Amino acid sequence: MFRTRLEAAARAVDDHLRISLSGLAPLPVVEAMRHA
To answer: Which of 3, 9, 10, 32 has its CA at a distance of 20 to 30 angstroms from the CA of residue 20?
Structure first.
């Protein structure tokens, strides 16, 4: 159970960071960072 919660939290943080970055940075920069 803890593992599932941890994964869900990590996914939520990841999504939040992606949304924040896409709002601040040009899309190519976000894509480059995502694949780095």
So the answer is: 3
**Count of domains for the chain:** 1
Domain of residue 13: give its range: 2-35
- Enter the pTM of the model: 0.46
CA distance to 6, 20, 26, per residue, from 34 (Å): 20, 13, 13
Q: Phi/psi at 5 (nearest 5 deg)? A: -65, -40
Whole-angstrom distance, CA of residue 16 vs CA of residue 20: 6
Burial zone of 1 (CB within 10 Å; 0-12 exposed, 13-18 middle, 19+ buried): exposed
